[in-house]
Amino acid sequence: MEMVHIAGIGLLAAILVLVLKEQKPLFAFLLAMFAGIFIFLLMIGRIEAVIGTMQQLAERSGIPSVYLKTILKMIGIAYIAEFAAQIIRDAGAEGVASKVEFAGKVLILVLAVPIINVIVETVVGLLPAGG
Q1: Mean pLDDT for the chain overall
Q2: Partner of 68 for a Cys bridge, out of 58, 73, 99, 123, CB 3.0 to 4.6 A?
Q3: What is the DSSP letter of 62?
Q4: What's the whole-model pTM score?
Q5: What are the residues whose beta carbons fall under 8 Å from the beta carbon of 5, sequence distance 6 or more?
Q6: Is 129 helix (H, G, I), strand (E, B) or coil?
Q7: Cβ 55 vs Cβ 68: under 8 Å
């Protein structure tokens, strides 16, 4: 049922944006932006539930919390970059949106380096010594 409400909000906002776009383009953009933010805020509770479940799984499996936190940061960066880029595209600034996506990818890569390092060290440690 929740998805029906979200779809309804999205459709209503889209119709209003189409109606306003010709006469008041700034209001149409603001409406689209606020609708997106509202939908995002509706999902915060679901996101918190997923994070809680992932933390429980990590604790039970013995995975160090630093790895889970890093992965969650990476996921957060990806969602925020995508969300911001879509809003920027709605404003008609495709070039800026692409730069925001690029920055998100670079930040994710920066966060991934320590994890990649641990994986490489683990693999190297499993290899037999000598040739």
Answers
A1: 90
A2: 58
A3: T
A4: 0.77
A5: 42
A6: coil
A7: yes
Residue of 22, 20, 47, 23 lying closest to 34 (CA atoms):
20
**pLDDT tens digit string along 2-34?**
899 999 999 999 999 999 989 999 999 899 999
In sequence order, which residues have a C-beta less than 8 Å from that of residue 85 and are 6 or more positions away?
97, 98, 100, 101, 104
With 0-12 CB in 10 A as exposed, 13-18 as middle and 19+ as buried, what is 21? Answer: middle
- For 54-66, how does the pLDDT look when each residue is reduced to its tens digit (9 = 90+)? 889 888 988 888 8
Contact at 8 Å (CB) between 90 and 32?
Answer: yes
Residue 129 has pLDDT above 90, yes or no: no
